[in-house]
Write a structure and sequence with these properties.
CATH architecture of the largest domain in chain A: Alpha-Beta Complex
Largest sheet of chain B: none
Distance between the termini of chain B: 42 Å
CATH class of the largest domain in chain A: Alpha Beta
Strand content of chain A: 15-25%
Largest sheet of chain A: 5 strands, antiparallel
Number of helices of chain B: 4
Order of helices and strands of chain A: HEEEHEEHHHEEEEHHHH
Radius of gyration of chain B: 20 Å
CATH topology of the largest domain in chain A: Aminoglycoside 3'-phosphotransferase, Chain: A, domain 2
Shape of chain B: elongated
Oligomer: heterodimer
Helix content of chain B: 55-70%
Number of domains of chain A: 2
Number of helices of chain A: 9
Order of helices and strands of chain B: HHHH
């Protein structure tokens, strides 16, 4: 990645605004994410002073996603009732300092997930999880026509479009045979569900990709896997064991809050299909990380043995296919 | 063979840990060394169990492929080379054979007919997969350290 400099950033922002913008207090902030490098800075223009977050596209890691659709989605969700950080500027071409980035206003909150592991749960997390269910329902109620930057789909093709996409990635990224994943892919293909509706799907909706401040959900972030699809896909992802808030709010209660806001229940077999699908999806993300490391596209050791996560994901797939409990 | 692979990994990890204890290291370097150390620890744990796992997995996969050959063409598993005296005990040979067998299994799953016989065969594949997961030494590794994550992008 190119060196991030305040001067280049200020020049770019000034060009965008058509008036001088000064940039100060530029600093890299720590993140456990892999695809975007977050920076904090203060922008001043026309007497306005705003704390901003800049997300810079990182070196190749698990998935290659462009910033444009992510930024356009956040911008389109402004004032929609879905909590997102206000979108500010996009430099998809890397004009400012050689790497693509976008900027949003800073939003208070933390993405810390350690609290999810508290044995007896946490009332604040329960409250945030309920707000997440409401936010998900509101996201899924958005008119897809307002998101023309995302690839269109239909209720009939939403599932197969995603399955085709991830199966193609699987075949491209795998370093070894994975009969367990092939088994699951066939199981999914023989049971393709029809979506009740097409909606905006966050694609990585979960604790860790949201900001909360005490017991208040302040923003949904990390939209790099956003797409149009079946809203149940998000519901089959949000309580996966790696990031589940179930110790604070049982999944059934989360679904009840979602259903009340959405005005429709979630059908269990439909949900199970997406739970299996999401294990495939995360497996492929892991395989892509290991492939990136093997191909020297990244030097991050985090990716070196990421494919080791596939075995537990396959175990979960088999449980789900045998009719094991959701989440 | 001394030092064993596990002993060598342990020695390398000790060096990595010593380097990581240097208070003058930057955050990124310290984090990289922590990750390297914990990955070496997992490799130490899994390495000893790897060959027995592969040998048993190869036996089970070859037996199942022989059954599935009635439903899917060209599933004959590769046999260990009689010309290679180390084939039965070499980890590299066992791993190579394991890859070949799993590739055949993946193809079989894909090509099994969509009828009762195919469904029954796929259930047998699922059984094999479950048994493999139960034996898999990688699933009995020490937990990842806090510096690692299994998250999405």
């Amino acid at each position: 990645m190119s060196e991030v400099r305040a001067e280049g950033l200020a020049t770019f922002l000034s060009e965008q605004e058509g008036r001088p913008v000064t940039v100060g207090e530029l600093q890299r902030i720590s993140s456990v994410g892999n695809a975007r490098e977050p920076w904090l800075f203060r922008a001043t223009w026309d007497g306005r002073d705003e704390r901003c977050v800049m997300l810079v596209k990182a070196e190749a890691g698990q998935l290659e996603t462009s910033l444009g659709p992510e930024f356009a989605t956040i911008a389109a969700l402004d004032a929609s009732g879905v909590p997102v950080p206000p979108a500010r500027w996009l430099d998809e071409a890397g004009a400012a300092f050689g790497s693509a980035f976008f900027v949003t206003a800073w939003v208070p909150g933390t993405a810390d997930t350690r609290v999810l592991r508290k044995p007896d749960g946490d009332p604040a997390i329960a409250a945030v999880a309920r707000q997440l269910a409401v936010a998900a329902a509101r996201l899924h109620a958005q008119d897809p026509a307002r998101f023309g930057h995302l690839t269109p789909t239909t209720p009939e093709t939403a599932a197969v479009d995603q399955l085709d996409h991830w199966e193609e990635l699987f075949r491209r990224q795998r370093l070894e045979p994975h009969p367990g994943l092939v088994y699951a892919l066939r199981w999914l293909r023989e049971r393709l569900p029809r979506a009740e509706r097409v909606s905006v799907v966050h694609g990585d909706l979960r604790f860790g990709n949201l900001l909360y401040d005490g017991d208040r959900l302040t923003a949904l972030v990390d939209w790099e896997m956003v797409h149009l699809g079946d809203p149940v896909e998000d519901l089959g992802w949000v309580y996966r064991s790696l990031w589940s808030p179930s110790r604070s709010l049982p999944f059934e209660e989360f679904l009840a809050v979602y259903a009340a806001e959405a005005g429709r229940p979630v059908e269990r077999e439909h949900l199970r299909w997406y739970e299996v699908f999401n294990e495939i999806k995360h497996s492929v993300i892991s395989l892509t990380g290991t492939r990136s490391f093997a191909d020297r596209a990244t030097t991050s050791l985090r990716h070196a043995d990421r494919s080791a996560t596939v075995a537990p994901f396959v175990r979960r797939i088999l449980e789900l296919i045998e009719g094991g409990p959701s989440c | 063979m001394e030092p064993t692979v596990a002993a060598q990994l342990r020695a390398i990890r000790r060096l990595v840990d010593e380097a990581g204890a240097d208070a003058g290291l930057g955050e990124a370097a310290a984090q990289a060394l922590t990750l390297a150390s914990s990955q070496l620890r997992r490799l130490e744990g899994a390495q000893a169990a790897r060959l027995p796992f592969l040998v048993e997995d190869n036996r089970a996969a070859a037996a199942l492929l022989a059954e599935l050959a009635e439903l899917v063409a060209d599933l004959a598993p590769p046999e260990p080379s009689p010309a290679d005296p180390e084939a039965a005990t070499s980890e590299a040979a066992a791993a190579s054979r394991n890859d070949a067998l799993r590739e055949l299994l993946a193809r079989a799953v894909h090509e099994l007919p969509a009828d009762a016989a195919g469904d029954a065969a796929r259930a047998r594949v699922a059984e094999l997969l479950r048994a493999r997961l139960a034996r898999n030494p990688a699933l009995n590794r020490p937990p990842r350290s806090g510096a690692e994550r299994t998250g999405t992008p």
